[in-house]
């Protein structure tokens, strides 16, 4: 059986806020690359791989009566 999971995340545009996130986590999510060692290296070790982001909707499966196109349309409207 094959199924797909989807999730919605927001990342800040490039600028001071995203630079703060890269400094804090030690991972530049926009570039997909390591950043300078963060001040709380041990505390951020696990979440570092996810980078600085906001989870709008955690991983989910689409309802059987909807489609990827409908999800994309709704996301764009958001």
Task: Spell out the key features of this protein.
single chain; 78 residues; alpha+beta; two-stranded antiparallel ribbon; 21% strand; elongated
Description:
With 78 residues, this protein is an alpha+beta fold. The chain has one domain. Helices cover 26% and strands 21% of the residues. The protein contains two helices and four strands. The strands form two sheets. It has a two-stranded antiparallel ribbon with strand order 1-4. The chain has a two-stranded antiparallel ribbon with strand order 2-3. The mean pLDDT is 90.
Shape: elongated
Spell the H/E element sequence.
EHEEEH
Give me the side-by-side strand order of the main sheet: 1-4
* Estimated radius of gyration: 16 Å
Number of DSSP helical runs: 2
Oligomer: single chain
Number of domains: 1
Beta-strand percentage?
15-25%
Summarize the structure.
With 78 residues, this protein is α+β, with helices and mostly antiparallel strands. The chain has 2 helices and 4 strands; from the N terminus they run βαβββα.
Sequence-ordered SSE layout with sheet pairings:
Elements: E1 6-10, H1 16-25, E2 27-28, E3 33-34, E4 54-60, H2 68-77
Antiparallel strand pairs: 1-4, 2-3
């Amino acid at each position: 059986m094959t199924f797909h999971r989807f999730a919605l995340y927001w990342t800040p545009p490039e600028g001071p806020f995203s630079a703060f996130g890269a400094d804090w986590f030690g991972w530049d999510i926009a570039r997909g690359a390591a950043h300078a060692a963060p001040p709380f290296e041990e505390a951020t070790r696990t979440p570092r791989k996810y980078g600085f982001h906001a989870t709008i909707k955690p991983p989910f499966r689409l309802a059987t009566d909807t489609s990827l196109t409908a999800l994309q349309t709704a996301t764009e409207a958001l």
